[in-house]
Design a protein that fits this description.
11 strands, single chain, 5-stranded mixed sheet, Protocatechuate 3,4-Dioxygenase, subunit A, alpha+beta, 20% helix, 26% strand, 2 domains
Length: 296
């Protein structure tokens, strides 16, 4: 204070005012930086338990240029059509989409994927029974593809995936699993309606593989989408309402509106990946047909 008084007497009132103003501005700037740093530190330190009622800010890095598919993957796609007998229903080849960053192999062989085998917990949400039929094309006929391994994985009501280190779920396996297609080319999963996360429409990942002993001879990967209005209705219910309404519709999602990963569709590939949803009291039944090239 003594030093400041001496300087003030020498410089006079105008310059003293300038010094006080400068010191004040610097102090406010340092305080703002500290508040910002504290806020960011708390955000970075969040765990899945601490963000139950907040928006997930960890976003999958599945944007940008998708990786090139291998020859095995590309050959699994077809733009052919086939007919189901005896219904004479015509089905089209199903486009592939990018796998995304969260596929984990070696998940349990199970139909009900709502539980976590690491701790016995069960994911909460609106029940969804998903029935998927897998077909190959043979001279215009849709032939059930039996013995194929079909994995699915998706986010929980908070938009969180299991088995992801950055989300604090590395040891978990909820909402993941696979089934082997039966004689009708069919698998069934009991799960919950998926939640959303920033930048993506609500979706379910799926992967079909066929092995000859240990050799993988077919691999087909895509994503499935759900009706926008039903997405909104589901997220008005608990526990989804704690996370808030979906932020991104199908038509605002760059994966949905983009080209297929196999190059057969140049835009809006997601239009051919919509799950057929039927409401059943307090749950939903979702059905989907996958048509691919099994003659590799």
């Amino acid at each position: 204070m003594l030093a400041f008084s001496i300087i003030s007497s020498i410089l006079g009132e105008p310059k003293r005012f300038l010094i006080v103003s400068t010191v004040t501005i610097i102090s406010l700037g340092l305080f703002s930086m500290q508040v910002s740093f504290d806020s960011q530190s708390k955000s970075f330190g969040q765990t899945p338990e601490s963000i139950e009622n907040q928006t997930l800010t960890t976003r999958p890095t599945q944007f940008g240029i998708p990786p090139e598919l291998s020859a095995t993957q590309k050959n699994a796609s077809t733009n052919a059509t086939c007919s189901l007998t005896p219904s004479s229903t015509t089905l089209h080849g199903t486009p592939q989409q990018i796998e995304g960053p969260y596929f984990v192999d070696g998940m349990p062989n199970r139909s009900n994927i709502t539980s976590d085998t690491s701790n016995g917990s069960v994911e909460q949400g609106v029940p969804l029974r998903l029935v998927i039929h897998v077909y190959g094309v043979d001279d215009g006929s849709c032939v059930p593809l039996q013995g194929a391994k079909l994995d699915i994985w998706h986010a929980n009501f908070q938009g969180i995936y299991s088995a992801v280190k950055d989300m604090g779920t590395a040891e978990n396996n909820f909402l993941r699993g696979y089934q082997v297609t039966d004689d009708n080319g069919t698998v069934q999963f009991t799960t919950i309606y998926p939640g959303w996360y920033e930048g993506r429409a609500i979706h379910i990942h799926d992967k079909v593989r066929i092995f000859d002993e240990s050799e993988k001879i077919l691999q087909w990967t895509s994503q499935l989408y759900l009706n926008n209005s039903i997405n909104e209705q589901v997220h008005e219910k608990t526990p989804y309402s704690n996370h808030g309404p979906p932020q991104t519709t199908n038509e605002e999602d760059m994966i949905y509106t983009g080209a297929s990963a196999d190059g057969l569709i140049q835009s809006n590939s997601g239009e051919q990946l919509m799950v057929n949803l039927t409401k059943q009291k307090d749950s939903y039944l979702g059905t989907f047909n996958i048509v691919l090239n099994s003659n590799q």
